[in-house]
């Protein structure tokens, strides 16, 4: 039979081995729990980022639509002056009275450049068409100051540019819609 010293050593070895396995099991369980929690946090972070991006996309889309309506309305008003249906001063009065709206074009451009830079080329095309319309309006203004007469030439040019603006805007909105499909 084993001596009591040998039995004590065996019991100590068994206790240490059992304790070691318990520690190992606890460590493995803790490690697995940490990985699961980390994966859950990463998933939640990704979901929040996607929700935020979608909210920015919806806001940008809405702002682009409002802005385009303002640009086209202004263009059509100037066209009425170019066609002689309204005086230039009447057009300015209408635009000034309407300009008290709370539209923030800077917010639209900021959202576009910060969150959707891949569609920047399409936005540039829209902005270029808007600038072209503004140049025609400015040219008409200078002519109108000189002689106060309508200008069919300016009206036709503005019609063409507003068509380009509309086409560019539709292309830009399609680019933005691609983001929605990806989210």
Descriptive overview:
By secondary structure, this protein is mainly α. 87% of the residues lie in helices and 0% in strands. It has 5 helices and no strands. Helix 1 packs antiparallel against helix 2, helix 1 runs parallel beside helix 4 and helix 1 runs antiparallel to helix 5.
Percent range of helical residues:
over 70%
Q: Pairing-aware structural class of the strands and helices?
A: mainly alpha
Overall average residue pLDDT: 91
β-sheet strand percentage: under 5%
Q: How would you characterize the largest beta sheet?
A: none
- SS element count, helices: 5
How would you summarize the topology of this molecule?
Blueprint: H1 4-82, H2 88-98, H3 105-115, H4 120-147, H5 152-182
Task: Give structural attributes.
about 180 residues, mainly alpha, 5 helices, single chain
In short:
The chain is mostly helical and 183 residues long. 87% of the residues lie in helices and 0% in strands.
